[in-house]
Structures are given as C-alpha cells and as structure tokens.
Amino acid sequence: MHYDDYHSPAICKIEEDNFFNELKKLCGANYEYYGPSYLDNIIKNDKLQELMQKYEINVGYFIYWILAMYASNQVPETTFDNSLIQNFDLNQKQIETELGKFQFDLLVKSLGGIFKQKNPLHFKYYYNIYRGKALGYCHKYTLEYPESSVQYVTAFIPIWFKGLKYLHSYVESTDGNIIDVSRNLVLPKTDFETLVNPEVVSIITPEEYQEDYPLLKKHPEITTREYLVNRPKVKRKIKR
Q: What is the pTM of this model?
C-alpha cells in the first residue's frame, strides 16, 4: 500500500483549504502558520461555537491540539478556557472534558532541564522541542528520540474536523505512555487513544532502526517517512 500524508490527499487538500478559508473569515486574519494562531484567535474571540455550526469538529483531536500547542509553547494558558474543556488544572496537568478526564505531562518541562544536557546534540534536540521548532517534523524527531525503552509508532490520526486523517509519528514507551515528541506532550496510552483513536500503520523498535541505520546512511534518497511507514519494503529496496 502507498502511504501519503493524508487519507485521500486530493480530497483532503480541497476540504482543508475550505476549512482554513473559513478560519480566515472568522479570525479576520491570514496567519502564516495555521494552527496555534487560529486556535488562540477563535477561542479568545468566542468563535468556536460558530465554527462548529459549519463544521463537524473532531472534539477529541481539537482538545488534543490544544494540549499539544500549550506543551510546545504556542498558545497561552487562557486557551484552555473554552466550551470543549469544562475544568482544567495546569499545575496538576489535568483537564476535564465532555470526553472524560485526561492526564498529561510535558516531555521537556523547562529550559533549565535542557541546559543540564551534556550532549550538544541532545541539547539542540530538546531545545527545539521545547520551543515548538519540532512541530511539523514528527517523523524526524520520533526516529531521533534518544531513549531506548520505547518503540516508534506511525499512524493515521484525525485532523480538526471529521472525515480527514493525516500521517503522524510518535513514541510509545514501555511504561504505557505515549510521547508525542514533536509536540512536547506525554499522555497515558488510554487517554491518547480516547482523544485521537490512532490507525496504526507501523511499529519499529530502536534495535531494528540501529540494525538498518548503516544501510540507510548509504541511501539518502530514502525519506524518514518512507522508512517509518514501510520498513520491510525499504529494506528489500536498499538490499538489491
């Protein structure tokens, strides 16, 4: 099977363009980077209900997106004050919604923790995650995650409104947590699955990646996404 960034990419492009055109109208602005600025504007100006009258919003993903944008320093705490979230305690990292109560944490909690990194590559890695510079590079940051007691998962997850899914990579740890590395967000697996209901495409272990790494270095034309979504096919291709 061929994997693209989206299910039905041609349809997704049309629907997503229409959706963001609607966001532009509601916000009265055209932001260069879609997600956080529109999200903050819509909630701040009480436009969420108006948006939901025109689009069947994926409530779970919308809540997840708020968590992810907060975790990666893209929106302020006031963003949690909206009709989808009934109660929140950001000190305890808990939110209560119509879908249930959810616990979350941050992968990188402060700049102080980053400065303790002795490895300069790790310092840059975690700094980019904390500052939101890893957003949009989920495949790369997942595969470069430096801890070993994990597995790399690639799955289709929903986008803002129902009917569309996009390809996303994240880390699953052996203690039962999901680490959405590029978004600086950590959730219990059950909470993650309730919010986004992932359609898993592939799972790769760090040991498998280390085994493949020497061959991948010789074939820079193989993209990270291509490797993550279809490791067996890639291995056959580069061993010819």
A: 0.89
